[in-house]
Fold:
Amino acid sequence: MIIVLKPRSTHEDLTRVEQMIKRRGLDTHIVEGSGMTIIGCIGDTSQIDSKLFEVDQAVEKVMHVQEPYKLANRAFHPEDSVIDISGVKVGDGHLAMIAGPCSVESFEQVLDIARAVKASGANLLRGGAFKPRTSPYSFQGLGLEGLEILCSVKKETGLPIVTELMSPDHLDIFNEKVDLIQIGARNMQNFDLLKQLGQLNRPILLKRGLNATYEEWIMSAEYIMASGNENVILCERGVRTFETYTRNTLDLQSIPVIRKLTHLPIIVDPSHAGGKWWLAEPMAKASIAAGADGLMIEVHNNPECALCDGAQSLKPEKYNTLITEIKEIAKVIGKNI
Ligand code: PEP
Ligand code: MN
Structure:
């Protein structure tokens, strides 16, 4: 349930209405937008009669929210959320340009790629230290050593880092060192992990599960938000379909749908969607044209020898050309990199 206060309501009005809500065992979430105050009621509102609130002199209208997600709901927060990642803003016209290798392989490898993508215009550096691999015999990532490499490259280049958290054992070290904590597709519904992310003060990049519906995906964001961390960015990375030619099928429709249903930024990872480097380029452009708030793209300086996902990684030169074109598209739709 959402309660909208009349335009010139006072602080006393807000406190009075809030108390009425709390007396009924609900929590509140206040959004003070341009000229209006919205009170989101959190909890089971199914038995609450909206007329109780409509009679208050300060109340403009009361609306019931059908969706099971509240904090992530655009109705609770009509304006786009802007997430600050160690000084890099994402959302409401600010694009996240995340680039880097699938996996951290060595300091030299990450530094070389980071310098190249930064020169092209990337503002965040990705690299997997802990890798969720289908086979236990595949390269599993360098682990904590990989995380240290990312930190050293951050020191050299100034690029904030994005890397995947898989185990609750690493919550503290990630909270200390990682600028944007990625939750991969396979952990999108690891609810215990999601709840613990609520205790962190770092923003979270929540990838869409391999076969998750929009509602399931948003509910996972709601888990993080309801536990105390409202800094969530969603990432479309393709879903499983009957098609086997591509690794996954990029769901471009998710961009306008997520933007309609939520106020959270949504970025796109075309690399894991298509699984082929030459597909990442057109899908990246289409994503920005469709309203995405950024891109996560795998870039490798020697893709033929990459320890993971070489076939879907762009060479730095190709990334440079792509970002030049992306800048033109962004300009047309009034966004900046
Ligand atoms: C990744 O970004 O490194 C990754 C493993 O992606 P996803 O979780 O989307 O498969
Ligand atoms: Mn990868």
In short: Residues 161 and 179 are 5 Å apart (CA to CA). The radius of gyration is 21 Å. Residues 102, 272, 298, 308-309 surround manganese (II) ion (ligand 2) (CB under 6 Å).
